[in-house]
Amino acid sequence: MKTSYSQLPFTLERQMMKTGLLVAEKITALTPTLNGMGVYHNRAIASDRQVLYNYKYFFTNLGEGFSAEALDSFFNTLTMLRNKKFKTRADVINLGKLEQNIVLLKSEVNRASIHWMETNKLDSILNFYADETLNVYDESAELKADELFFRNYLQDEILDSEMFHFFGAEKAINIHQKADLSDFDKELSIKFISTILFEIPCLDSFSYNQLRIIRNEFQEHLIPFYKALDEMKTKFETCIMTDENTDSLNKEFDEIVEPYVEFFKDLIGNNIYFQQIANSSTDHKMFQMNISFSTLETLLAVYKNAYVIDNMEYDILCEKIALAKDLNSGTVFFEMAEIPIE
Fold it and tell me: Residue 292: inside a domain, yes or no?
């Protein structure tokens, strides 16, 4: 989940999407940076109103092309002439010109959307979007319909026992650094356990077919991990984290996760596509996936520090969620960060 105020780099966001598609059954993204994917996918069936909205997304909002006022005036005139029962000769001529202009605008949007997909290296995940393995929410549209969308959606998501949260982090962390998480409140950082699950190279060089093959292989081999993850989630969500039991929970958490660290190392290392990247002469980025465990209160603090919710929304969510669950009860989630090149 990301808002227009979030500082998550797009390269990390893109890697998170692609990694999530390999290891998760489905992934849901609420982010303003992927709106162009919907534009591209629906470009053939877009209404004239949607064409103008998409034009604003690719051009007007970036200070290019026609202004929003000019586009709105254009659409109002087009609609008026289309609906006019008795058109004069001048009306017919003018309407014909406007119809030609909407075709030109649609062409511009199509060209821009294709360029956007290729430039942002998202063409490989488009089919996952089409078959709804990847669900993307349009931030601006959702907030226009409900200004409390983020808060309400986050509340429902946190209370949904089948959902796992997935965050991007500025720097890679491990369990030995849990007391030094400057991004979180000092008091909350004590109740934060995180350990490295696996490392994975940048996935931008893979095509859709390659990602699909890797996904199918991973989904087949990860069944034992999914079962362990469900058991872990059930076990730790019933725990109330305190200063006294953090160390013992840390030990239990490690005992469950540790066998799967080697499991993922073999799964990724033995894959022919990842071997090709490892054996290539070109430098490639590496990313680290962590599995983490904290309190619900800490989880909300993570969203606050990611600028998904503000301080007031954080307080409101804490109050509302506390009516259904203890804020010190545990929750399991995932994080990803780029590994610095030494």
Answer: yes
Angle, alpha carbons 91-75-77 (nearest 5°): 30
221: tokens are 């081999």
Query: Same domain for 149 and 196?
Result: yes
Give residue 243's pLDDT. 80
Overall domain count for the chain: 2
Q: b/e for 128-144, b at 16 or more Cβ within 10 A?
A: bbeeebbebbbbeeeee
The answer on 181 and 43 residing in a single domain is no
Contact 26, 166 (CB under 8 A): no
Collapsing DSSP states into helix, strand and coil, what is residue 254?
A: helix
In 3D space, the residue among 185, 192, 217, 199 whose CA is nearest the CA of residue 296 turns out to be: 192
| pLDDT tens for each residue of 283-307 | 788 999 999 888 888 888 888 877 7
- Which range of residues forms the domain containing residue 243? 10-26+141-338
Tokens at 10, concatenated: 């797009």
Report how far residue 103's alpha carbon sits from residue 46's, in angstroms, rounded to the nearest whole number: 12
- 325, 232: one domain: yes
Nearest residue to 47 (alpha-carbon basis) of 93, 96, 82: 82
97 and 157 co-located in one domain: no
Q: Are residues 275 and 232 in the same domain?
A: yes
CA dist 33 and 42 (Å) reads 17
H-helix or E-strand containing 209?
Answer: helix 208-221
Q: Per residue, what are the HEC states of 294-333?
A: EEHHHHHHHHHHCCCCCHHHHHHHHHHHHCCCCCCEEEEE
Residues 44 and 100 in one domain: yes
Q: Which has the closest alpha carbon to 172: 297, 5, 337?
A: 337
Which stretches of the chain score pLDDT less than 50? 175-188, 190
| Closest alpha carbon to 168 in 296, 279, 308 | 308
Tell me if 158 is assigned to some domain: yes
Residue 85: DSSP 8-state: S
pTM across the whole model:
0.82
Helix (H, G, I), strand (E, B) or coil at 7: coil
170-194 confidence digits (pLDDT tens) = 766 554 444 444 444 444 454 678 8
